[in-house]
Amino acid sequence: MSENDKIQSQNPQEITYKIGDEAALNAIRIGMTGVIVRVEGEGRIKRRLFDMGLTPGAEVFLRKKAPLGDPLEVTLRGYELTLRKDEASHVIMKITDLSVKDETGAK
Predict the structure, then answer these.
(1) Contacts of 80 (CB under 8 A, 6+ apart)
(2) In this predicted structure, what is the pLDDT of residue 98?
(3) Within a domain: 104
Protein backbone atom coordinates (compact mmCIF):
# COMPACT_ATOMS: atom_id res chain seq x y z
CA MET A 1 0.00 0.00 0.00
CA SER A 2 1.48 3.35 -0.98
CA GLU A 3 1.89 6.28 1.43
CA ASN A 4 -0.85 8.20 -0.40
CA ASP A 5 -3.26 5.27 0.04
CA LYS A 6 -2.54 5.19 3.77
CA ILE A 7 -3.06 8.94 4.12
CA GLN A 8 -6.38 8.94 2.26
CA SER A 9 -7.79 5.71 3.71
CA GLN A 10 -11.20 5.95 5.36
CA ASN A 11 -10.98 2.54 7.10
CA PRO A 12 -8.16 2.60 9.66
CA GLN A 13 -8.84 -0.99 10.77
CA GLU A 14 -7.29 -2.26 7.50
CA ILE A 15 -3.97 -0.43 7.93
CA THR A 16 -0.98 -1.40 10.04
CA TYR A 17 0.96 1.70 11.01
CA LYS A 18 4.53 2.01 12.23
CA ILE A 19 6.08 4.83 14.22
CA GLY A 20 7.15 7.48 11.74
CA ASP A 21 4.40 6.75 9.19
CA GLU A 22 2.33 9.67 7.94
CA ALA A 23 -1.45 9.45 8.11
CA ALA A 24 -4.45 11.74 8.04
CA LEU A 25 -5.91 12.41 11.48
CA ASN A 26 -9.24 10.86 10.49
CA ALA A 27 -7.50 7.60 9.50
CA ILE A 28 -5.67 6.74 12.73
CA ARG A 29 -7.06 4.66 15.58
CA ILE A 30 -8.14 5.64 19.07
CA GLY A 31 -5.16 5.97 21.39
CA MET A 32 -2.60 6.86 18.74
CA THR A 33 -0.49 9.99 19.06
CA GLY A 34 1.27 11.98 16.38
CA VAL A 35 2.84 15.28 15.48
CA ILE A 36 1.24 17.39 12.77
CA VAL A 37 3.45 17.53 9.68
CA ARG A 38 1.20 19.66 7.48
CA VAL A 39 -2.33 20.93 7.09
CA GLU A 40 -3.79 20.55 3.61
CA GLY A 41 -6.68 22.42 2.10
CA GLU A 42 -7.25 25.91 0.87
CA GLY A 43 -8.57 29.17 2.21
CA ARG A 44 -11.23 29.00 4.89
CA ILE A 45 -10.80 25.37 5.93
CA LYS A 46 -7.04 25.71 6.39
CA ARG A 47 -7.46 28.98 8.30
CA ARG A 48 -10.13 27.41 10.55
CA LEU A 49 -7.87 24.45 11.39
CA PHE A 50 -4.95 26.78 12.15
CA ASP A 51 -7.21 28.93 14.36
CA MET A 52 -8.16 25.80 16.35
CA GLY A 53 -4.46 25.14 17.04
CA LEU A 54 -3.91 22.42 14.45
CA THR A 55 -0.54 23.66 13.24
CA PRO A 56 2.64 21.86 12.15
CA GLY A 57 4.65 20.64 15.14
CA ALA A 58 1.66 20.28 17.50
CA GLU A 59 1.23 16.90 19.20
CA VAL A 60 -2.23 15.34 18.84
CA PHE A 61 -3.73 12.39 20.75
CA LEU A 62 -6.89 10.75 19.35
CA ARG A 63 -9.18 10.29 22.37
CA LYS A 64 -12.52 9.16 20.95
CA LYS A 65 -14.55 8.57 17.82
CA ALA A 66 -18.32 8.55 17.57
CA PRO A 67 -19.82 5.15 16.67
CA LEU A 68 -19.88 5.97 12.95
CA GLY A 69 -16.50 7.71 13.10
CA ASP A 70 -17.82 11.27 12.94
CA PRO A 71 -17.05 13.42 14.89
CA LEU A 72 -13.78 12.59 16.64
CA GLU A 73 -12.20 14.05 19.76
CA VAL A 74 -8.52 14.84 20.14
CA THR A 75 -6.32 16.26 22.86
CA LEU A 76 -4.18 19.09 21.57
CA ARG A 77 -2.10 21.68 23.43
CA GLY A 78 -3.71 20.69 26.75
CA TYR A 79 -7.36 20.92 25.68
CA GLU A 80 -9.95 18.68 24.03
CA LEU A 81 -11.12 19.50 20.52
CA THR A 82 -13.93 17.89 18.54
CA LEU A 83 -13.57 17.74 14.76
CA ARG A 84 -15.66 16.47 11.88
CA LYS A 85 -14.09 13.60 9.94
CA ASP A 86 -13.84 15.81 6.85
CA GLU A 87 -11.92 18.49 8.76
CA ALA A 88 -9.59 15.88 10.27
CA SER A 89 -8.79 14.50 6.81
CA HIS A 90 -6.86 17.72 6.06
CA VAL A 91 -4.48 17.21 9.02
CA ILE A 92 -1.48 15.01 8.14
CA MET A 93 0.47 13.62 11.08
CA LYS A 94 3.61 11.62 11.71
CA ILE A 95 2.73 8.82 14.13
CA THR A 96 4.79 8.86 17.35
CA ASP A 97 2.86 6.41 19.58
CA LEU A 98 0.93 3.29 18.59
CA SER A 99 -0.91 2.68 21.88
CA VAL A 100 -4.12 1.72 20.13
CA LYS A 101 -7.20 1.28 22.30
CA ASP A 102 -10.48 -0.38 21.45
CA GLU A 103 -13.71 1.60 21.05
CA THR A 104 -14.34 1.51 24.84
CA GLY A 105 -10.99 3.14 25.55
CA ALA A 106 -9.34 -0.02 26.97
CA LYS A 107 -5.89 -1.04 25.68
Answers:
(1) 63, 73, 74
(2) 86
(3) no
Q: pLDDT tens digit string along 8-57?
A: 444 555 678 889 999 999 999 999 999 999 999 889 999 999 999 999 99
What CA–CA distance (Å, rounded) separates 5 from 7? 5
**DSSP single-letter state for residue 26:** G
Q: What is the CATH number of the domain that holds 31?
A: 2.30.30.90
pTM: 0.78
Question: Within a domain: residue 22?
Answer: yes
Say if 52 falls within a structural domain: yes
Residue 100: what pLDDT? 67
- Say how far apart CA 106 and CA 84 lie, in whole Å: 23
Query: Whole domain around residue 55: which residue ranges?
Result: 3-97
Q: How many Cβ atoms from other residues are within 10 Å of residue 72's Cβ?
A: 21
**What's residue 68's pLDDT?**
85
The CA distance from 45 to 104, in Å, is 31
**Can you list the positions of beta strands (E) in the chain?**
22-24, 33-39, 59-65, 72-76, 79-83, 91-97
